[in-house]
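User: I'll paste a sequence; please echo it back and then give the predicted structure.

Assistant: Echoing your sequence first, then the prediction.
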Amino acid sequence: MKFAQFLPACLVLAIIGRLIFKLVVIKTPCRKNVDFQWNRVLFLNDSDVSNVDFTRDSIEWPEDTILPIDKCNVERLYVIVVHSAIGNADRRNRLRGIIESLEGERPHLIFSIGRTRNTTLQNEVENESKIFKDLLQTHSLDDYRLLPSKAHSWIRFLSQNCTNKIKFVLKIDDDVNVNFNLFKEFLETRETRKQQVLCSPFKHIADRRKKSTWYLSEKEFRHRNLGYFCAGLAYIISADLLPNMLRNSAYRRVVWLDDWYVTHSLLVGETVKIYDISSLYFVSETIQDAYRQLSQIKMGLRPIPMFSHLRPRKFFDQQRQSYLWEQSQQCLLQLDEDDELLESEAEQARKASTLNNIFIVQ
């Protein structure tokens, strides 16, 4: 009986709350990326440990079996280097199509791959290279734990052929989504800066769990602390750093974690700043967290992402990845032409968001 007395008031409050929420969703513009603030600026030499070991003799890196043709023959703002598994021709074709569709000046594109013992697959790769002229194949086998060889391959090629023709290197994996138009606008604000790395950095200890994907034995890496390094899915390096990185690769002991090797080991001792742009990454390992981030993007609480990488595959198949990426590139403000669609999107955002209505209204 008492509940019935309060029912009309509850209904009124619920309706008002829904109207307020919808109003906030419509009126809150997506946060402008030009207002982006650095989370922090890091210096590798501030690391609390010296964790880079040196070799007595110069390392003999394997030669490359396939080289890109006509790359860096003209000046470009940046070059895209993609770490790609040798069998991932479909992913390479997807990226080629995206770059081909870009308006205006297109960046150089290079795929860094390893070698295979499969003669049929190797023949297919050689034919692919003749058609697209964008493959860089190292003689090392295409293996997850030999990724530093892929990295050294493109560092060497770019150092010897491209440093005077480009200003930045964007390294990505072949399953990463990139908003290239936003990326170009972002880089143009950094064009005159030297000795810089832009990425999603973190600090970690060596993983000693033998069953872990990132296992490091004490024999391979005797230190406990890995220090600061960049997430390998996507990072940006100013091209002026490449010659010194190539020089350093001759005597820095190789650790199979290629993101650590490139963005920590090869840069320690250099005058370099690491700019934290983590908020421009849409990265998640759970569906719930992915939708939480998406709701924040749509409500303008986070900038539209420049990069996206969602895994594992059992949670994020290609269809779901594509949907989440496409949704992250627009805000609810742009959907007001279709009230039904707006209502649906608002409902999804409300369910996924961990923010309460009081905070949203404020």
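The chain has two domains: 40-276, 279-351. DSSP finds eleven helices and 14 strands in the chain.
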